[in-house]
Structure formats: structure tokens, C-alpha cells
Amino acid sequence: RKEVEQDPGPFNVPEGATVAFNCTYSNSASQSFFWYRQDCRKEPKLLMSVYSSGNEDGRFTAQLNRASQYISLLIRDSKLSDSATYLCVVGGDKIIFGKGTRLHILP
Amino acid sequence: NAGVTQTPKFQVLKTGQSMTLQCAQDMNHEYMSWYRQDPGMGLRLIHYSVGAGITDQGEVPNGYNVSRSTTEDFPLRLLSAAPSQTSVYFCASSYGADNYGYTFGSGTRLTVV
Q: Which chain B residues are within 8 Å of A42, Cβ to Cβ?
């Protein structure tokens, strides 16, 4: 099992739709969890940390299920500017990235 | 506050040449890492450091060396460049392991011919 697994996509969704990304990780001792966003030919940028209690930032909601070793990201009312690759990230001393899920928001 | 600075932004090397990719951060971050990103492979960890004087190997360390003599700097050395090392290299830093995300540099695009 790979350390961090994501559906590679691409997800093509109409503007205004809700889209969900899922991620699983293999190391049960992992301490920290994040979602990053990467635009084409740019560096990854932190979107949000993920906590066991779940957390929300505007249109974005992240959930962590430690028992199932599963992380999710929900984007509501998607915008054209949300088009990007979304990276699931799991870590401790070293941080491991999933390969990312590409999202295209269609006008 | 410059964040994470990588130099150079672009580099072309001939097979067998050596070079050092520079990475510096001014945020007093203890943790620093080097990643390479290839199409379809995602970001793969090359080497990482949890503090000055401490380094460890990541997923793909072969052909690369690192050192961490100061908190600020974490250079990546390519010992003898090979075409398989053509990639985009990212340096990143963080305060620590617990829910502190990494801040990335803008990357170095390396081509080995």
C-alpha cells in the first residue's frame, strides 16, 4: 500500500457544484495532515490543516478519520479559480505528498 | 520576510556535471526538505532535516547529498548529473511536525542533457 493515495482525477465539475476529494494513508503513526493546492508550474501552497474534529474555512471543509486512515476535502459552491491540483499530505518528521487530484471547474 | 528562496530558477547541466541547488529560509524554521516533482509521479521526498546538523534520507536519495550547517540553509548537491535527474526541485521549510504546514520555494527547473 502506498503511503498516501489519492484519486488522480481529473474531476471536471460545473461552476457552483460541490466536489469531494478523498485520500488514504498507510502509516497509523502519522501526526499531521494537510491539504495543499498546486497551480500549473507553481509551488504547492498550504490550503488547510486537517484535524480530527474536522475544520472549515469558508467554502472548504476538511475531515480526518484516524481509525480508517482517511482524509477528505469538500469544496462547496466551486469557482473557476478553484481549478488546480489538490494534494493530500501526511506527516511526522518527514512529510509525504499524495500524487494529487486535478480539478477542472467548467463555466 | 523573503520566505523560502531557491536558486537558480532554471539550470541546464551536461551529464556528469555536478552542481548545488541552494535553499535558504528566513523564518527560523527547524524542518527543511527537498522534493522533486515529475509528471505523473507527484512530489517525492529526496532528503530532509529536522534541525541544524541533522539530515536523513527520503524516498529517492540516490545521486543527491545534503548538509545542514545552519538553520537557514539546506543546499542539495547533485554529485554526477544524469538525465534521470531532469525534474523540478522544490525546497520547503516548517516550524515542526505537528500541524505546521510546509512553506515552499518557487522551485528549480533542472534539465540534464
A: 106-107
Q: What is the DSSP letter of B105?
A: P
- DSSP structure class, residue A8: -
Could you identify the residue written with the cell 522544490? B90
Q: How far is B15 from chain A (nearest CA, A)?
A: 25
Asked if residue A49 lies in contact with residue B99, where contact means CB atoms within 8 angstroms, the answer is yes
The answer to whether A96 and A88 are in contact (CB under 8 A) is no
What are the per-10-residue average pLDDT scores of chain B (113 residues)?
Answer: 91 97 95 92 91 94 97 97 97 79 93 97
Backbone torsions φ then ψ of A90, nearest 5 degrees: -130, 140
B106 close to A (CB below 8 A):
yes
SS3 of residue B51 by DSSP: strand
Q: What are A55's strand-pairing partners?
A: A62
Residue B33: which of B42, B20, B44, B41 has the closest Cα?
B44
User: A38 has which bridge partners?
Assistant: A85
What's the pLDDT tens digit per position in A57-87?
999 999 999 999 999 999 999 999 999 999 9
pLDDT of residue B97: 63
Q: Give every strand in the sheet of A55-57, ordered side by side.
A: A4-6, A19-25, A70-75, A60-65, A55-57
Pull the grid cell for residue A93. Answer: 518528521
| Cell of residue B94, nine digits | 516548517
What's the pLDDT at A83?
97
For residue B99, the model assigns a pLDDT of: 59
